[in-house]
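Q: Predict the assembly, please.
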Amino acid sequence: MYSFTKAAWSSVGKKIMTGVTGLALCVFIAEHLIANSLMFLGPDAFNAYTHKLTTMGGLLYALEGGLVLAFLLHAVTGISIWLNKRRARPQAYVSRLSSKGGASKQTFSSRTMIYTGLVLLVFIVVHLKTFKYGPNYETLVDGVRMRDLYRLVVEVFQSPAYAFGYVAVMALLGFHLRHGFWSAFQSLGVSHPRYVPIIYRFGILFAFVIALGFLVLPLWIYYGGGKV
Amino acid sequence: MKNMTLNLKIWRQPNAQSAGRFVSYTVQDISPDMSFLEMLDILNEQLAKKGDEPIEFDNDCREGICGMCSLVINGVPHGSQKGTATCQLHMRKFRDGQTITVEPWRARPFPVLKDLVVDRGALDRIMAAGGYVSCHVGAAVDANAVLIAKDMAEKAMDYAACIGCGACVAACPNASASLFVAAKIAQFAHLPQGQVERKERAIRMVEAMDELGFGDCSNHGECEAVCPKEISIASIALMRREYFKAAIS
Amino acid sequence: MKLDAKIPGGPLNEKWDNHKFDIKLVNPANKRKYTVLVVGTGLAGASAAASLAELGYNVLAFCVQDSPRRAHSIAAQGGINAAKNYPNDGDSIRRLFYDTIKGGDYRAREGNVYRLAQLSANIIDQCVAQGVPFAREYGGQLDNRSFGGAQVSRTFYARGQTGQQLLLGAYGSMMRQVAEGRVQMFPRREMLDLVVAGGKARGIVCRNLVTGEIEAYAGHAVLLCTGGYGNVYYLSTNAKNSNATAAWRCYKRGALFANPCFTQIHPTCIPVTGEHQSKLTLMSESLRNDGRVWVPKQTGDQRPPERIPEDERDYYLERKYPSFGNLVPRDVASRNAKSVCDEHRGVGESGLAVYLDFRDAIARLGEDTIRERYGNLFDMYERITDENPYRVPMRIYPAVHYTMGGLWVDYNLMSTIPGLHVLGEANFSDHGANRLGASALMQGLADGYFIIPYTLGHYLASTSFPAVSTDAPEFREAVGGVRATVDRMLSIKGKKTVLEFHRELGRIMWDYVGMSRTAKGLKKALQMIPRLREEFWQNVNIPSAPDQLNKNLEFAGRVADFMELGELMAIDALHRNESCGGHFREEYQTPEGEAKRDDKRFSYAAAWEFAGERKRPVLNKEPLTFENVKLSQRSYK
Ligand SMILES: Cc1cc2nc3c(=O)[nH]c(=O)nc-3n(C[C@H](O)[C@H](O)[C@H](O)COP(=O)(O)OP(=O)(O)OC[C@H]3O[C@@H](n4cnc5c(N)ncnc54)[C@H](O)[C@@H]3O)c2cc1C
Ligand code: HEM
Ligand code: HEM
Ligand code: SF4
Ligand code: F3S
Ligand code: FES
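A: Predicted assembly structure:
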């Protein structure tokens, strides 16, 4: 068998990794959005759901471990691709390249993957600190003691900095996914002439729905929704 | 359409070691029926008459098949016309009084040799790594002993049409040679003759491309847009499948 | 000089087999001790380099372009002939042989042409094995089409890119040997002299086109695969870098140049638009399968084509040649186009064009079928002319396309200088006075894949080689000579550019040594060319320095050689007092205006020998004897 490390860190290997991890993150983010949407149904529904997750035990740790790995690998390969791109063209075009259009898939999104990605990286750290490792409020739902994340979220988004900061990041996430979604399929070798255009269009929709879905929550709370 | 006057901003660089810069020129009385390279010929004649150094640019067949011409014209490799190499671009695509910038291909594996001429030897080295079917001369079976479905042969031909110009590299924001490499891998993946070395070919060509210092592919698809043969980036997806299968077996 | 073509004895169909058995072999262990210099990497050069390296020889390959894959073979569109008889329409080796001999107007060697026809089938097998994506039928078998006047379908093709695909096959094989270390590739090198030591070709002198350095390479044999010299006309379908320089320097070192006046004019090219024109683009002649050629009946008719009613159109090929119609051979089609334009019935702005009309074919077959057959050609036409050939007829005009003449070689492809072998379009061997469409690709690959591996081995095995290095006096003399020529050209600092000289030469050649020639015109050319040459050496202007990339300098050298070759072409054309194939002398024609051969006096290959600067070259004749075909007047009525 061909050397695994060599294959993994080849130009193709790296793309397969960004693709796999990117799609995994897409699945996570979709799940996360659905979970967050439970907030619109009220504190109990949301808290109960998050509590249920914490009681999954080993499986949750495995999923979280996978998620961390996915984030790390995704960030490392993404950054490595970007570094390599800079090495591959030491003298930049002086007259600036412009896109020819037509078959090109080059967009503002595709050109800014590294920037939107790095913002997401910083965001994740802050985000985890704010919520997962944030103050531990407690509540009772149907007699069961559990963490009151609902309250935490609502408190956090009272602050305009948080609320609008999140809105901005969610918009960037949308851009990241606008190129990222279809790109992951291309990286994983999907080349069917009929499905690729469908995937491409679905990716735009996906990006839009994710960004919009995430961004209404902070706004809703900030403007008075979800008061306990 | 009447004849035009054009302002040109052309990259001049004495050799790989020295720095280059844009130099402005004006050409007059350019007929819309001229090709872009014929317009440059006229400029060069003017320069030669004045005893100035003509602008060096690569070209040979001037009919879009040898892949020798290059030039980034107003920021687009091979210029703005779809499916067209620079040598087949005609001046009727420009406006009277327009300013046109002309730059060489830029990528680390393509050092500038002089003015607009770059060294694309890296593409040959990739081909040497596996862009062929190994078969002895003279020992082949009858040509019709291998049957190939028409649509497979057509697909193989779509990919085989690559002229090796390197515009894909030049246009790629990452300076990746993925389309060039993938086109060859895809051609042979569609043909029975290519099966025996299928895995080795994918591994070796990708390895060579990486070692030569091309960038990675972020799926910008700009390569397909500028490719004079309009080769699809579906080949790049296919290359990844091929590589993956080869690497895990 | 007595020319011995070394055609093996025996019946036609056994000559090559017998010869292969009779020739000497090189011991496998010794092969790597031999260094072979292959100049040119087109179909002939790349296939030879790949085959020889595979056998174990140490090969050094050179080309002018930045990559061996860009040789002008890449531009061949139409296809390659082979006597496979897949369509079962009556083809055979003998028929391909016969068609080629007849197409060449009986000015080629029987032995060579028969061998070519025999090897044609192997070429297709070889190329398919390499993965060349030839066109297929629905059943998966190879598709064939009929081409350029052949009455059987024996042409294999890969869309309109046959040459490209064949060359990439050969190039791939060669690059495989590069990876193995058995071929060393030297791109951006121009061969500027041949080194003859001890009476044998032992090396070459090149200019490194990037650094300007003059470099010498030594070896045991030199294979010249440098293509044709159509660019002597300035405008031709050849690539800009196609040149005669390597062949010409070999001529000056003692190799004979045969039949230089045999040039092929291709009937279907896109017409010239103006003085700026830098090259001509061929439209594959397969277009004539469905397009109809016509001009207005009236002279000076300025109406657009759609306004000219049917009965005022002259479908002159169909009228004059009812059985072949639009599919007459190239020379006939070209000459007829010229003559209607000479009658002021030409079309387009310049009046130098005829229509190739697809209206009827589109009506009969539908636009989709036409698009499928010729889509890429139509697109190319539209890109260049900005006219849509689905709506308005194409305008076409003949252009210089191929040169049948070249360095004289024997059956082993060796020139009159021992060790100097010449392959592909650079030699004179197989096409006689006119080339059938789709046979040059065949010849280049036959030479490289199947002939030279045997005959070169024989030469190496039967020759003793004293050690020669690039320090030898012969090398130093050649390098010094090349440097001196470069310096001399640069020191002139005149007023006229290289391009101006080339254009002027081209005009003389086209007007007087072109499609139809007269003794008077040729004599005029023989006065004009030397005058132009004198002027060149006094008044050429080459800006910029020699020690860098300098295209003006490259072209100056080539144009200087073209001017000498052009003169030889005129001398040859003037001496050949007959018309045959691509050589049409107005004085020698049948009452119907067809080429009239004079087999009694001119059934020979004219091989010219260099006799010194400004001296008249010496004519050597290789008589052509025909034992297997009956000479007849070509008729395509
Ligand atoms: C537009 C066009 C279409 C054609 N279509 C067909 C067709 O359909 N069917 C057919 O059978 N034939 C066709 N022909 C003819 C055929 O393509 C050529 O005759 C054939 O390809 C010549 O091959 P070659 O290997 O001899 O030379 P080329 O392919 O011309 O190669 C010449 C090589 O020599 C090198 N070279 C030249 N000079 C020097 C030098 N001084 N020093 C170092 N290297 C040098 C070049 O770099 C190049 O590598 C066509 C020709 C043209 C121009
Ligand atoms: C941790 C922070 C992140 C960083 C640094 C980052 C960075 C990147 C970069 C640079 C790319 C482009 C790779 C290339 O150029 O080929 C990329 C692609 C991608 N990213 Fe991210 N990203 C991050 C987070 C995310 C998240 C949270 C998601 C999903 C919700 C995501 C989904 C994707 C997808 C689907 C792709 C396309 C993968 C491919 O082309 O194969 N990324 N990322
Ligand atoms: C409005 C937007 C968002 C809200 C309100 C939100 C809310 C939350 C909350 C409450 C948690 C804690 C869950 C727990 O500890 O069980 C959490 C965890 C997390 N969030 Fe978000 N989130 C948002 C957007 C995002 C985005 C865009 C990303 C990724 C790019 C993200 C990634 C994560 C991750 C990785 C965790 C940790 C999951 C785990 O440990 O199981 N979140 N989020
Ligand atoms: S893939 Fe297209 S752009 Fe790239 S080298 Fe080939 S022909 Fe040129
Ligand atoms: S433009 Fe570049 S990023 Fe990939 S799809 Fe083409 S190689
Ligand atoms: S010069 Fe040959 S492709 Fe442009």
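The pocket of FE2/S2 (inorganic) cluster (ligand 6) is lined by residues B 59-62, 64-69, 85-87, 163 (CB under 6 Å). Chain C has a mean pLDDT of 95.
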